[in-house]
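Progress report, Aim 2. The chain analyzed during this reporting quarter is listed below.
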Amino acid sequence: MLSAADRAVKNALNKYGAYARKVAKNLIKTKAYTLHSAEGSPPFGHNGITRYKDWIFFAYDQSDKRVFIGAIRLSRASDPPVPEILEHGGYTMHSVPWSELPNLSHKAKRPKRKKYQAARPHMSVAHRAAGKKLPVFFRDSIKPF
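Predicted structure tokens for the chain:
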């Protein structure tokens, strides 16, 4: 059985997680596949079968009284994780454009090369925005009988 204080913490942190997730998803604007956001601004989302913004979740951990907010890993095991690369920047593998491969048949597999992906922070922005509202989430969370 949860005490009144434990229920209040759980409710406040769930509100915090839901708000931070909403802010993060709203920061990702949908654009065409050919458009990319400027370095240092939130990433653009693209319509398709799997949209990055649809994989941003939050979860409350009862034992540690913490909330985890962020995107789950979308990339394969051999690739760098997408959420970390978007948030902090880093190197990823990209296919070489066809324009740079004039003698290669379109049926052939394109070679890949390492390319630096600049940071597109969005979760840290969402955490800061939700952190400002944390006192509101805790206000009047324990009510007298």
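The longest strand covers residues 56-61. The first helix runs from residue 4 to 27. These observations will guide the mutagenesis work planned for the next reporting period.
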